[in-house]
């Protein structure tokens, strides 16, 4: 396997490997050595080429300080390698060993209540700790030097799901590192006081040594600038912790690829140093875990949403952990994929950008906090339906991979995403409003259910491949993005900007000029003169005043309404809808057209949706937040001057149609996410490259089955 030169981060970036990574995370330390050869042979028979191992094994690599023992993994790697299975090793820094936490307790995280973590289960180490970083560099160098010439070790994963268990820390080392970060960011303490609004509530500092960590509600609300900088710092600290390892690994053997596997995406700036340091990024995909936790409306759309969010950060990726069955830890469990569904979920990952995939896990553990997290092999060492589905999937991948590699996912509708500052800005001062991602999810689900290709994209990426770009309430807007979206519109694109966009600067201050700032007002031809809160759908109140849940302000419990009739409505596409969350009153230039108006109370007759012709395209502005009810009318109005069409006309519910393409080479993925067979019609003529069969007009897809068609 060769590592090719990597391209800059972009949603369109292909993976820089010349083969498809296919296999499983493997834990030889969890079973008797008598299993190892049989495991390797079964993996090879399944069609796998790679395993990932070692992420939680620091205590085995270094049983006590300065004493390294590589024997167990040397033997496991050798057996796998001779059977034809390569190994990805992991730096084991997610689980510092017990001798370290006993000898150096200062490495432990401290929570917002001042409680120091105990040893285990993982991510108990504080990545801001200089002591932990020292030991992290030691173990990484020892591993790199030992395996630098091993032909079976092809690459590395840094740590494991950084910040997934916990991302925040309030330790002494965190406070010191935060102050040092601020000293580099700000020229002097007066600059910091300006950024954080020190003249409000007497929060100004005399010097950097006085700066405290932003402990929520201690005793009241914090400056948004303070909170934003803390999370910027956490993201930088995470990137620095990882860079230590990347520099060592690449310095020892520059033929290795290095990546990281992400879990919940907390406090990581993918487009910054973190992502730029890596060859590519991995995302761990557990659709049925997300669905139960986030309740976004079904396993199919839930997985598609997560995959498209991930791809917006990095371009094509690998899935180092793909759900293979029932999963649980003591406090929760997932739903169980039905027969055929594991294979379907894996191909959905590939369709939406995965150029490598590993089923989690090879076999389940017999002890510990994941004894019921099932693998491909059951507890009794028998391969059953999950193993056989994995074999079938591997066979399919080996048939299509040569046509797959180098392609990227094509989509017509872009939703602005993958921006760390805008993700965090909302959290610093949410006011009970939906987050940009909450709003974007509504838009995405509508497109998904309509069969329209939709994805997330950063404004810095190439926008020319899009037909429509939607900006969901991005509080912070940069002038250079205006230049990009203006060119997009002038060349024929449709831009939709939504309420509250461009209303804060990078310090979370409100500018003195009317929103939207940074040139957007001139492009759109509008200015926001007033805004105000509205109740959420089916609620008469706004939000509870002071409760705090996990650092964010709880907005779920409504207060009694001032008036049972305090509702606002608007008219769009000759239909009347209840407004939700927020209204804006705008003024606009003479060449701006009104495509919808507010209908009731003092808002009657004021513009709801505006449109301005710019070059060959149109720039539109929406003076409220989305609701599920209004989206069909909004998109009908929005798309009427575009060539946006579903990927497949009259696509049946539950069917995904996704295109991966490079130049004129196109692969159409048709995926049935349902438990019943579905007839799909209006399919363009092409070749089913798995079964080498011509497809014309229609195909009957069995439950959880798929087709990959070369158009």
From TrEMBL:
Domain of life of the source: Bacteria
Catalytic activity: Hydrolysis of terminal non-reducing beta-D-galactose residues in beta-D-galactosides
Keywords assigned by UniProt, alphabetized: Glycosidase, Hydrolase, Metal-binding, Zinc
Alphabetical list of InterPro entries matching this protein: Beta_galactosidase_Trimer, Class_I_gatase-like, GH, Glyco_hydro_42, Glyco_hydro_42_N, Glyco_hydro_b
Enzyme class name: hydrolase
Glycoside hydrolase family 42 N-terminal domain span: 27-398
EC number per UniProt: 3.2.1.23
Keyword rRNA-binding (UniProt): no
Keyword Hydrolase attached: yes
Family named by the database record: Belongs to the glycosyl hydrolase 42 family.
Name used for this protein in its record: Beta-galactosidase
